[in-house]
Please model this.
Amino acid sequence: MSNTTYDVLIIGGGPAGLSTAYLCHKNGLSYLVLESGKAIFQGIANTYPEGKLVYASKPKDAPEPFMVEELRPPDKPVTVESYLQYVQHFVQHENLNVQTEVAFEDIKDERDGLTVVTSKGRFKGKKVVLSFGSNIPRELSVYGDAKMVAKNVDDASKYIGIKTLVIGGGNTAADVIINILKAKREVHDTQPVYWAHKAETFDVNKETAQRLGEEILLGGNIRLLPGAQPRIGEVDDEGVDRLVIRINEFKQTDGIDLYHALSFPMQNVIACIGSQGPVPIFDKLGIQSIACAAGVCKIAKEGERLVLLSSEFESTRKGVYVIGGAISPSYMKITEGSIVEEKHPNLIYTAINDAYYVVEAIRAKISK
Ligand SMILES: Cc1cc2nc3c(=O)[nH]c(=O)nc-3n(C[C@H](O)[C@H](O)[C@H](O)COP(=O)(O)OP(=O)(O)OC[C@H]3O[C@@H](n4cnc5c(N)ncnc54)[C@H](O)[C@@H]3O)c2cc1C
Model:
């Protein structure tokens, strides 16, 4: 663990996290952004379709302008690629303090602040801003899962010459397979790609199915594993991490189950198993949320759990703030003794403006 104690540790380098970083930088607060992706704005890079225009949308009833002009999308919409390029230049130009490929895991309370536990060690901060967006990769809940959760493949050529396992039954998994089959076809690699899904049927749209069909007809070697269950991770005799996936199971009357399973080296596995809202992370961190009772919430549905925040976005865990997509489309705001559902559209505007109010609140607290 480094000896530095930052004023603010920022989790996630999207519009919310980078606006927080920039405002800390401008106001002389020490800070560090920890981003799990390969680059800043990874959340946007992963979810926007190629060439999508980015709109500077603002909720109709919002009184304020964008509070960080420098990071707002231009009024005349540009493609996501040019917006990303602009932001990357901006971050370099301002020399913002960002570490990429660091995945946030937990927060521990210390006597003099908070320690953030990550995949690359521990970091200390006086305050922590959680700005990890709304799309948290689901985990497989088997040993070693963190390494495998992916939404796309950056470099399909890494899978040339090896038998690859792709887990997940939707369009994302199919796209990954198409890319790998194509890379293999170009170099005449006949090693198969296994496609496993826990359900009995796969569920992709027509356009993706057509592209996949084309790859198969052009010689793509794919083996389907419907109804397959990732069960355990193991380390083999040579110290290689492996994933065991059951491909069928036979229940016996004597209570002893019989099954067939395949075991893949973890590095050959790509899991495309979608994302979930951040509530499980809030639970893990001990951040309180409340379930909407009948008739209480206008935006969230009955039974949905909303995180509880002060008007300055501080959670029930002291010194831990939550902003941006992570608290959209609504959260529970504590104001003068009452708790009300607060609308919070998932927009770049809200992410940026949350950052402004949080940094103002932190500045006031730190200067006391
Ligand atoms: C297809 C699509 C189109 C959209 N178009 C528009 C538009 O035109 N205009 C508009 O205003 N809004 C648009 N939005 C919404 C907008 O993108 C979001 O409101 C905004 O990105 C939220 O910013 P954020 O910083 O809160 O979260 P994100 O942008 O999701 O950033 C969160 C960051 O945290 C990182 N992260 C996640 N988990 C961890 C972890 N464990 N450790 C470290 N880092 C982590 C992620 O990699 C990501 O980079 C669109 C959304 C989608 C999906």
User: Anything to note?
Assistant: The two ends are 28 Å apart (CA to CA).
